Amino acid sequence: MLVKVTSWVALLMVAFVGIEAAQSPARIELQKADEAKNEVSNIENEMNQAILQKDATVLAKIYADDLIYINGGGELLNKSRAVADYRTGNNTLVHLDHDDIQLRFYGDTIVLTGRSNSTVRYKGGVIKIPRRFTNVFVLLNRRWQIVLHQVTNVEQAPKADAQ
Amino acid sequence: MRRGLLLLLLTNVLVSLAGAQSVTTKDNAVIETEKKEVLMVENEVNKALLAGDTNVLSRIYADDLSYTNQVGEILTKSQVLSGFKTGNIRLPTLGRRQIRLYAYENTVVLTGISTSTLRYKGVVTNRPRRFSNVYVRQNGQWKLVAHTVTEIAE
User: Domain B27-151 classified CATH 3.10.450.50?
Assistant: First the structure.
């Protein structure tokens, strides 16, 4: 008797889940988007920690093989060059400061944008000016990977003359 | 009864797995066709930019477009279209080189160098800029979802 009742309850639960899924595709899509955005946010954090720690192994895992990396000076780097720069200290993230992070979900692609006030040491020079950045994540072989990273320096308004 | 339950559960699990997967194996011919389609859309955008044709731009720009211009401002679709309508944004001449395309499942990333003359808020620039355009296929149409520009340092 108990087995029968349990079976019916289980069947009803499965049927309910099925009906829910069939009736609210928009809700499922929203849930899927939220889950994907959370996952990508975690990967973004993992990547930032890897950059701080010069962890080339983690970066190589997150960067797609055909990564397009455009830095604030408009240089175009490939994956091996970008990873090597972090590993060797040619590109060092001294202090991490990101805000205004926004994620847009397009199924198997997520566009993440944000503002960076981080301090970076690149080729001996120190960069502190505010920058905008775009990271494009694509689901490749079930893993979110960065295919495009692009930085744009924010133009500073001329300072008012103190006199 | 139990067999029926198992079948239902198995079906649900399989549907979930299929939804989570991303198939990345695509025929080369399909990839090339998609790149050509995106190039055609990109050419259409370029002509519309020159002509200030906001109808065409509005059709190709995704509603939630992320547009980062050369001075690091993030503009929405309506701000960009309004800029062209009011004359705040003008593209008198078009110059593009080193165009490259990277195709993924439903996404194509296009990169290049722009040497176009651009007038923005009264300031004219023709310094070379590296740009990327991210196109995503939505309801069978390629839409521009992200445009990012970076001035190339001298």
Answer: yes
